[in-house]
Amino acid sequence: MPTSSPNTSASSATAATSAFAHHLSVRAELESLTTEAFRPELADIDQRPTLDIAKLMNGEDAAVPTAVAARLPLIAAAIDAIAERMARGGRLIYAGAGTAGRLGVLDASECPPTFNTSPSQVMGLIAGGREAVVTSIEGAEDSAELARADLDALVIRPDDTVVGVSASGRTPYAVGAVEHARAAGALTVGLSCNEASALAAAADHGIEIVVGPELVTGSTRLKAGTAQKLVLNMLSTITMIRLGKTYGNLMVDVRATNDKLRARSHRIVALATGATDTEIETALTESGGQVKNAILTLLSGVDAPTAADLLAENAGHLRAALAAAMR
């Protein structure tokens, strides 16, 4: 019966020792994180009435907006920097693993129908690829090399922004993405839910939303996930407002791809102009269904081709195009 050589046995023992040491290091690191803290006062939660648990969870969630409010100046600074670069043609790219990655993919996927962005303008990268959106591929989060490869496939440019998202603030995929993007000259944002995180330290703009320990220990899809969703909503939505994708609070760049959105387009034009249904339908038809253009023709009296030219000359900002048309 073959036996292992002394060198092979020694090598295996060294590898096992190294793996165990790494395990202990990661465990100690996690135990130091606020998001992973154990709450002994909730040790009997599984024995409480359902309504009591629901009230408790609702109360926990109510604290999240306050935690976000404490970081609004940092969020606003990041948005201004993102908008400046996107106005020059840059892209907004989220990178995360697990829940954080899924939230980034979700936010990115909602931008085309809401703001008529191209799929390449706002993108979400998740460790493990698209399959990880619906299937847990948690091991992928440990690979900074995977993040670098995913970003290299997109050819990162200086006007791009990469937002690393990680509740713990230590996820190698998110940290690796930010470090690689920053080295390429891109703007970087690190969004986490722990103070003094490696992710925030690696980024140009570190945003740490400290929501405290979770109801279920370590389940960062709860308060931490809610906090990340709120901040991602701000990053994309306010950036789009800065880029002229709205007129007041109206979604004038909405892409009418179904009956609901076509009805919404009509209503937006009505709210912006006060025109009759017939006038609105005519304007939308002549403008190829583009809400901004239809509003401009109705408010300024210019024809559809002139409206398109004015919007192009004013980087798509409807207010600026209206001002130019009225001169």
Write down how many β-strands occur, each being a DSSP E stretch of 2 or more residues: 5
Distance between the termini: 94 Å
Radius of gyration: 24 Å
The low-confidence parts are: 19-24
What proportion of the residues form beta strands (DSSP E)?
5-15%
Largest sheet: 5 strands, parallel
What is the SS-derived class?
Answer: alpha/beta
Strands ordered across the widest β-sheet: 2-1-3-4-5
Helix content: 40-55%
Silhouette: globular
Average per-residue pLDDT, rounded, comes to 91
Total helical elements: 15
Listing every helix as H and every strand as E from the N terminus to the C terminus, the arrangement reads: HHHHEHHEHEHEHEHHHHHH
Structure in words:
The protein has 327 residues and is of the alpha/beta class. It is 54% helix and 8% strand. The chain has helices at residues 6-31, 50-62, 64-69, 72-86, 98-109, 111-115, 144-154, 172-183, 198-202, 223-242, 259-273, 277-286, 291-300, 304-313, 318-325, and strands at 92-96, 122-126, 161-165, 187-192, 205-208. It has a 5-stranded parallel β-sheet with strand order 2-1-3-4-5, with helices on both faces. Strand 4, helix 9 (198-202) and strand 5 form a beta-alpha-beta unit. Helix 12 packs across helix 13 (291-300) and helix 13 (291-300) packs parallel to helix 15 (318-325). The model is unreliable at 19-24 (pLDDT under 50).
